Amino acid sequence: xxxxxSNTTIVMPGERVTSIEDLAKSKRVILGPGLRRLDDTVVASxxxxxxxxxxxxxxxxxxxxxxxxxxxDLVLGLVKAKAGDLYRVDIGSADTASISxxxxxAATKKNRPDLNPGDLIYARVxxxxxxxxxxxxxxxxxxxxxxxxxxxxxxFFKCSLNLGRVLLRENCPALTALTxxxxxxxxxxxxxxxxxxxxxxxxxxxxxxSILSLEQTNYSQIDRICGDLGEVLQE
Amino acid sequence: MFMNSNLFEPGKSKLERNFIQSAAKQNTRLDGRxxxxxxxxxxxxxxxxxxxxxxxxxxxxxAQVSCDIGTPSSARPNEGTLHLNVSLGGVAYLNESQTTxxxxxxxxxxxxxxxxxxxxxxxxxSLCVAAxxxxxxxxxxxxxxxxxxxxxxxxxxxxxxxxxxxxxPDVTFLDEEIRIYSDKERELIPLLFLHYxxxxxYCLYKSNSHYPYVDPILLEENAADSIIVLSFNSYxxxxxxxxxxxxxxxxxxxxxxxxxxxxxxxxxxxxxxxxLLLDEQRRNNKEPIMEGLVSLLTNKSQTISYNHLxxxxxxxxxMREKQEIPEKVKTEDKPVxxxxxxxxxxxxxxxxxxxxxxxxxRDKEASPTVVTSSAPTKTNRNKSQRGAGQQKSTQxxxxxxxxxxxxxxxxxxxx
Lengths: 235, 415
Prior knowledge:
The structure holds two protein chains of two kinds. Chain A contains five helices and 15 strands. Chain A has a five-stranded mixed barrel with strand order 7-8-9-11-10. Chain A has a four-stranded mixed sheet with strand order 1-5-6-2, with no helix packed on it. The longest helix of chain A is centred in the C-terminal third of the chain and has 16 residues, at 219-234. Chain A has three domains: 10-60, CATH 2.40.50.100; 74-151, CATH 2.40.50.140; 155-234, K Homology domain, type 1 (Ribosomal Protein S8, Chain: A, domain 1, 2-Layer Sandwich), CATH 3.30.1370.10. Chain A is flat. Chain A has helices at 18-26, 161-168, 173-181, 201-212, 219-234; strands spanning 10-11, 30-31, 35-38, 41-44, 48-53, 57-60, 74-83, 86-90, 97-100, 120-127, 135-137, 149-151, 155-158, 184-189, 193-198. By secondary structure, chain B is α+β, with helices and mostly antiparallel strands. Chain B folds into three domains: 14-302, GHMP Kinase, N-terminal domain (Ribosomal Protein S5, domain 2, 2-Layer Sandwich); 306-344; 350-415, no CATH class. In chain B, the strands form four sheets. In chain B, strands 1, 2, 3, 4, 5, 6 and 15 form a seven-stranded mixed sheet that branches. The longest helix of chain B has 34 residues, at 251-284. Chain A binds chain B through residues 78, 80, 90, 92-96, 116, 118-120, 151-158, 195, 201-202, 204-205, 208-209, and chain B through 1, 3, 5-8, 10, 12-19, 22-23, 26, 28, 30-32. Chain B: Belongs to the RNase PH family. Chain B: InterPro entries: ExoRNase_PH_dom1 (IPR001247), ExoRNase_PH_dom2_sf (IPR036345), Exosome_comp_Rrp42_subfam (IPR050590), PNPase/RNase_PH_dom_sf (IPR027408), Ribosomal_Su5_D2-typ_SF (IPR020568), Rrp45 (IPR033100). Chain B: One of its GO terms (biological process) is TRAMP-dependent tRNA surveillance pathway. Chain B: Residues 37-169 form the Exoribonuclease phosphorolytic domain.
């Protein structure tokens, strides 16, 4: 957490966070994931270290593997089935997401995208609400696909949501360190799924193993792990 | 729609399947093992008799044995009963649909039934208290805590370890009255075994049907085209074979699997026996035992590791052999290197002759493709056990037996 104060207060669900309440008396505060306002009190709804970003943002950085969809998230999904003019896509949330036949670049009623159950797609969450199933799209507002769409070849694996978020952070040290070792393509979904493709299968395997080993590490260990990878591949 | 129906299991997507298939073509595995390498097996015994947790890599299984007095079946009035029960609730998150769950449950249950019950591994007659009236009913509850492939081996090892660890109270039957003694009054009695079976799992891919992967992880298992599960006892007798799937497999490959599986089963049983001895020593020394399941899962201090325990053993024998016949040891094998990696040593040496041929017809094709070369150090150990194996082997194989005997006699000459 480079840009947050490194106070390691651990909060548990249901715990009152009085430090935020005190601050809220003098100025406006923003409560992020894992914190809730109940009348005049601030209560944690998830367990984990309390994080703070200046000037007034708070959130709980909890360890989680279950994805809760949110609008605008980039996710990796597996096509489960065709259903009328929709595809059912598994994105690891409580409910399967759906994506329309027309939500692909240059797709028309006649020209349908060729997707089959078991395919992996990189998509954006269009709308997400607790009561209706999430909807995905593979185009931006201009109708261009950009980086979204079907991912073929390569390897795909699941990890915790935290690791996904760590990799997605701007100038993530892990990905920079890995880039120094070898070229590769990567697609990280905030739903804790990662797609990888390197030049050879061996490299892809090495990369996926080193990324998975980042799960329990701190920033100081990342460089060491990435260095190890280079040594292994040079053998 | 089911709550958990939205999760794809690892290995079920097209991408993963293709990747694993191409990896199989190059004979590489995701975790860096060779096709014939096993993961480490770890055992932790609980405070109660017959409680054990077995971990193979990330796969974790808890087995608990209990017993009580019941009535025998009318078909077998002088035998106790053995009931095996598997609970897959711990990995319910994996099950994509109800059918996957049922299928997994059924295969596992039938494997256990065939391995332990149908092969009559337990001496059930010794569990009889009074014929047609009272017998001991032994029950094995297997709870799957985590699934990372090879649930088959984990649950058979767990069941066997728990049964071997279990002790039942003593009982007397006088004047139509049963009296069960508590452990304070009389010592508890271990169960009697006729043989010790464990299973070994292989998975095969269409892209490469020559190198079956042993001890697959979940990804490999789910992406596999066929899975072969073989149960062997320590006498090299086949107890159950489960081979399905769609890979065209040569008989030679299955034979080769069987040969390696028999060897593995034997060393697994050896390991279990050693681990039980170690546990008994700890109990006799009044070392603190772990109370409760949580400490059983989290406390690693009393975990017994296969690689660790058997490594000592192998290096022990290697050292002893060196002292006996120092001229035979290759000069490039420094003693330090042997200590550090005793498992590597056999693979460097010339592939040792397979001496399980007593019960298996050998075909010429299979021998050059043997993946795991057996340790030359093991050869001597196996020979001493051969007598038992031969006595037990069926008459059907008597021809092969003779053939292999002559083969073995010639071997020293070839060496």
